[in-house]
Amino acid sequence: MAAGYVYVLCAAVLWGLIGPASKLAFEAGMAPLEVAFWRTVLAWALFGTHAVVSRDLRLAKKDILPVAAFGICGIAGLFGSYVYAVKLGGAAMASVLLYTAPAWVALMSFFLLKERMGTFKVAAVAATILGVAGISLGPRLAGDVAGSVPVTAASVLVGLLAGFTYALYFIFGKLYLSRYKTPTVFFYALPVGALALVPFFELRLPSLSGLAACAFLALCSTYGAYSIYYAGLRHLEATRAAVVATIEPVVAAVLAWVMFGEVFTPVGYGGSALILFGVLLAIWEGGRQAVRVPKSLLPKNP
Fold first, then answer.
1. Other C-beta atoms within 10 Å of 65: how many?
2. Confidence check: pLDDT of 292 > 80
3. To the nearest 10°, the Cα dihedral for 162, 165, 166, 170?
4. How far apart are CA 53 and CA 20, in angstroms?
5. How far, CA to CA in Å, does 211 sit from each of 24, 37, 88, 105, 249?
6. Which of 29, 132, 33 lies closest to 76 in space, CA to CA?
7. Residues 6+ apart with CB under 8 A from 252
């Protein structure tokens, strides 16, 4: 079990590096969606090689359109909105708002999958909403703080969009990922996502430093992080793994402070804590529900 914690912790740290690495790409002259595009293309080369070598290329015809839709919304949508959120509001705030995903999952599960909204889910959504309000209103309530992250309507909305598109991973995974291995899905979804990003920026060859930052995002924060995380799941329960993974926004916030001097207002830190508290409530509720599900109904490993 100890190995599982180490794997998941390493994956969370690698995900926490997305914001700081993206900012390094911005400093190299790259636009946000340009960073998202090259991260997607390079990650496709890695996942594609994995899928080809392991011969995990089979995709049922009925799943082609859902996987393509996931490429547009879950790949282009998440990768694009997240780096844009980093650009507009900083790495710390983007990472915290990304973790509104469990609240979006709870709402989508209620409306799309007809799952019951229990007490913990309602509390998680409420805590998330209050947390977002704390981050958004922090500068007005607490006054300006030197180095505080720029909070605008655009930075908050794009950060929430990143959280929403991240939530699609959970919904899509519940419906489809039990049928396929991760490299198989990403082999088909990543190129669709890359093509969806092309019309929104000027395609050009990035500088060496910009390309290095994107290569790091693809190798370490995408292919490496997902691979290590799923390796950890072999040794650890999904609920415990999800709890450990909440270290990601903490890592992002600390690195953003050390590397770029980003800080929240005191009210903003309170809002961030509420969002993470909402995440833990949602994970706790998910764990309680998983215990009630008969083993015969759980999806088998592909």
1. 9
2. no
3. 160
4. 32
5. 10, 11, 21, 33, 24
6. 33
7. 16, 17, 18, 19, 20, 91, 92, 94, 95, 96
Instruction: Find how far residue 122's CA is from the centre of its chain.
Output: 22
pLDDT in tens, 231-273: 887 787 766 777 788 899 999 999 999 999 888 888 889 999 9
CA-based nearest residue to 238, from 289, 186, 277? 289
Residue whose token pair is 């900083």: 90
What share of residues in the chain are helix, strand, coil (percent, to 5)? 80, 0, 20
**Residue-wise pLDDT tens digits, 149-208:** 678 899 999 999 999 999 888 778 777 767 888 899 999 999 999 999 999 999 999 999
**Sequence ranges of the domains in the chain:** 2-297
Q: Is the alpha carbon torsion for 211, 212, 214, 219 positive or negative?
A: positive
Closest CA to 281 of 107, 111, 110, 118: 118
Give the model confidence (pLDDT) of 29-50 as tens digits: 999 999 999 999 999 999 999 9
Cα 216 to Cα 213: distance, rounded to the nearest angstrom: 5
Q: Is 203 left (phi over 0), alpha (psi -120 to 50) or beta?
A: beta
How confident is the model over 203-225, as pLDDT tens digits? 999 999 999 999 999 999 999 99
Give which of 94, 102, 155 is closest to 125, Cα–Cα.
Answer: 102
First to last CA, the chain: 23
Whether the predicted pLDDT of 287 surpasses 70 = no
Q: Do residues 77 and 83 make contact, with C-beta atoms less than 8 angstroms apart? A: no
Instruction: Enumerate long-range contacts of 140-144, CB under 8 Å, 24 or more apart.
Output: 141/265, 141/267, 142/265, 142/266, 142/267, 142/268, 143/265
How many angstroms separate the Cα of 170 from the Cα of each of 109, 286, 294?
10, 12, 20
pLDDT of residue 174: 72
Question: What does the angle CA 279 – CA 283 – CA 285 come to, to the nearest 5 degrees?
Answer: 120
